[in-house]
Structure formats: structure tokens, C-alpha cells
Amino acid sequence: MKPLRLAVIGTGHLGAIHARLAAANPHFRLAAVVDPLPAQRDALAAELGVAAWDDHRALAGRVDAAILAAPTQFHHRVARDLIRAGIHLLIEKPITTTVAEADELVALAAHHGCVIQVGHVERFNPVFSAVAAQVGQPKYIEARRYGHHSFRSIDIGVVLDLMIHDLDLVLSLVAAPLVDVRAVGATVLGPHEDVATARLQFADGCVANLSASRVSYQACREMQIWSSAGFVGLDFATRTAKMVRPSGAVLRQEVSLGGLTPANRQQMRDLLFTELLPTHTMTAPERNAIADEQTDFAESIEHARAPRVSGHAGRDALAAAEAVVRAITAHTWTGTPPPTSAPSPALPTAGIPAPHWATYSATSSAATSE
Predict the structure, then answer these.
(1) CA–CA gap between residue 189 and residue 346 (Å, rounded)
(2) What is the distance in angstroms between the CA of the first residue and the CA of the last residue of the chain?
(3) Which string of DSSP letters, residue by residue, matches 251-281?
(4) Closest among 64, 154, 97, 149 to 369, alpha carbons compared
(5) pTM for this structure?
(6) pLDDT digits (tens, 9 = 90+) for 127-141
(7) Over residues 316-323, mean pLDDT
(8) What does the pLDDT look like over 38-56, one tens digit per residue?
(9) Exposed e or buried b for every residue in 285-319, given b needs 16+ CB within 10 A?
(10) Number of neighbours of residue 161 by Cβ within 10 angstroms
(11) Does 9 have pLDDT greater than 70?
(12) Distance set, CA 54 to CA 34, 62, 327 (Å)
């Protein structure tokens, strides 16, 4: 099939990565990079030998697809213009700043027959891809995502910046509806939350505890999953997984711990992770998750199928993130009663502002780089 004509919008750190990978992807013919800031845009365009434009609206009729890597606050308006022009979109996460905006884009894409893929790239992490189908029905999930502040994505807080990755992964694993969210968070560098922890409960009883920090001195991207099939511990950074599958005797509850002699106890300890709870460690082969994400985007267009992370999935991850932020905003540290109703997005309360309360200038005609 003829390569898709592609543009990358936003030539900051992530946009430049996307552009370089797309230029080497046989599914695409990179046609242009777009950014209102000339320095980064023109340098990247010269490096890749493509056109450089300062306004995304110039793409209409010139490209088949685009990757939107501008700051989150511009996603809705830019994506709306492009979808109306019949352009398929890979939108970097989060899909938009509000669920209402996401719903509008999803409906608009369906009306115009456009694919929306959302850049929740951890779905393409090779270790997650290797074990996701083996998890079974999750009962309890714990995730930690800590890192240094990148000083990018400063228009959103850590929930939409980092935790949303794990929110998306959890939602992809748990089939039941999300019914309750509790959370606390704190601003360190501001103006949005930099540290957050959340407890999610689902209608089937599954509970997920997620924590995220972008002011941590130690990086960490880990998830532990207890399920009907056993235990899986994932390290996204090293692409390793440790899997524990209970033996038949354990599943049948035939292992008795009562009345053990000292010799029996030592024997049980020796057999614990070999015969009772056999443990296996695997390392997934190294792959470029962003390149795989781009290929899935292209193939979803070429074969008229849903991408791995659809607009609906991106919308649901954002809805969960908004629930976390509302819980953070409602939490009190001093004993003062929480608000009687959820704060209005248009009227941020004192304390930690919700990420989606950031606004953008209505007069700006193009996205700025991230």
C-alpha cells in the first residue's frame, strides 16, 4: 500500500522523536512538521528534508494523517480542525484537557471516518505486551511511577503527565466499571500537583493503588498484579516480568501449615518458590515502543480497524484521571470539611489546581511545541 502522507505537529522533545521515527517508518511519507516557533521547527525540517509550516490548518488536503505532540491545552482545538479536514490522528496523551472535549473528538472522528489513536505508549512496552493476555482477572493492582521533573508538560500535573499511563494500563486489564476513587496529592514546584497517590475500586471488587511523582530522586516504573491466574510483577524500565503461578496443590488448598516440625518448615521454605509457588522470570526483547505505536496507527488506518489505544480508551483514561484530580482537590489536611460538591472546572478552588483548569489563548492560531 502507498505510504500515508504524515505531518508531525509540535516539534519539542517528543514531537522531534516522533518525526525522526516516522521518517524512517515505511508506512509513512513524512511531509511536514508544524510549529509556530521557527527555531525548533526549521531545524527539524532541515534535518529531515521536509516542509515546515507554522499553522496546522495548512495541512488540509496535503496529508492523510498527523501526529499531534503539542501541549495538552491545544489538543482539542487542533484535533477538531484536522478531523474536520478528514485527517487521521495519533494524539499524544492525554487526549484532551477535559472529558467533554474528548467526547466531542471521538464523536467527530466517527462522523468523519477518521482514526484517533492516543499515545499511551506503555501499552506498547514489550514486557506489558508479553504478559497482558496471561494476567487473567485482576484482583489487586499496585503501580509506582516515579521520575525526575522533565520541566516539560508544565501545563498539566503529575496525574495527567505520569499516572495516566498506569490508569490506562489498569483500565485495559480490568473489564468492570470504575466505581470509586480516593486520592491525595501535593504540589512541590507547582502550579499543579507533582506527587499523587490514588485508590481505585471497580464493580467486580478489584482494587488498584497507584502512585506517581515527578519530583523523585529515584526513577521507578513498576506494576504488580494479583489475579485469578497468579502474580505478575512488571518492571517497565528493564522490560522484565516475574510471574508466580500457584501449584495445583496450592489451588486445591491441600497445603497445610499446621503442626509443622522445624524440619518440615525448612523443607517448605526450600520448596516455596519452586514447587508450591513456581516462579519464572522473563525479559522481553528490546523494542522501540513509540515506533511500534506509530506502526499500529498506520495499520489501523490501512486496514480500517481500531488502534490498540483508541480514542474511547484515551477518553476513559482521562475520565479516571479527572476523578483522581477531583479527589485530590477535595482532600483536606487540616480537618476542614471537604467541598459539598465537585469544584467547577471554570472556578478552581484554592490549593492544588486541577490540570484541566489550564486555559489557552483563543487568538492563538497554532499549537506550540511541547
Answers:
(1) 23
(2) 32
(3) HTT----TT--HHHHHHHHHHIIIIIS-EEE
(4) 154
(5) 0.85
(6) 999 999 888 899 999
(7) 96
(8) 989 999 999 999 999 999 9
(9) eeeebbbbbbbbbbebbeeeeebbbbbbbbbbbbb
(10) 28
(11) yes
(12) 5, 15, 39
Residue closest to 70 by CA, chosen among 145, 12, 3: 12
Cα–Cα distance measured from residue 63 to residue 59, given in angstroms and rounded to the nearest whole number? 6
259 Cβ neighbours under 8 A, 6+ residues apart: none
CA distances from 283 to 118, 165, 238, 239, 288 (A): 26, 21, 8, 6, 15
Q: What share of the chain is helix, strand, coil (3-state, %, to 5)?
A: 35, 25, 40
pLDDT at residue 159, as a whole number: 93
Q: If 0-12 CB within 10 Å is exposed, 13-18 middle and 19+ buried, where does residue 189 land?
A: exposed
Instruction: Look up cell 506489558; give the residue.
Output: 128
pLDDT tens profile 185-240 = 988 887 888 999 999 999 999 999 999 999 998 999 999 999 988 999 999 999 99
Q: What is the SS3 assignment for 58-105?
A: HHCCCCCEEEECCCHHHHHHHHHHHHHCCCEEEEECCCCCCHHHHHHH
Does 341 score more than 50 pLDDT? no
Please count the residues of the chain. Answer: 370
What type of residue sits at position 232?
V
Which pLDDT does position 150 carry in this prediction? 73
254 grid coordinates: 491441600
Whether pLDDT at 368 is above 50: no
Per-residue pLDDT band for 157 (boundaries 50, 70, 90) equals: confident
Backbone angles phi, psi at 18, to 5 degrees: -60, -45
- pLDDT attached to residue 342: 37
Residue 343 has pLDDT above 90, yes or no: no
Query: Long-range CB contacts (< 8 A, 24+ apart) of 358-364?
Result: 358/72, 358/73, 358/97, 358/155, 358/156, 359/73, 360/73, 360/74, 360/77, 364/36, 364/74
For the chain, domains (ranges, CATH) are 1-224+288-370 (3.40.50.720)
- Looking at residue 337, what DSSP letter applies? P
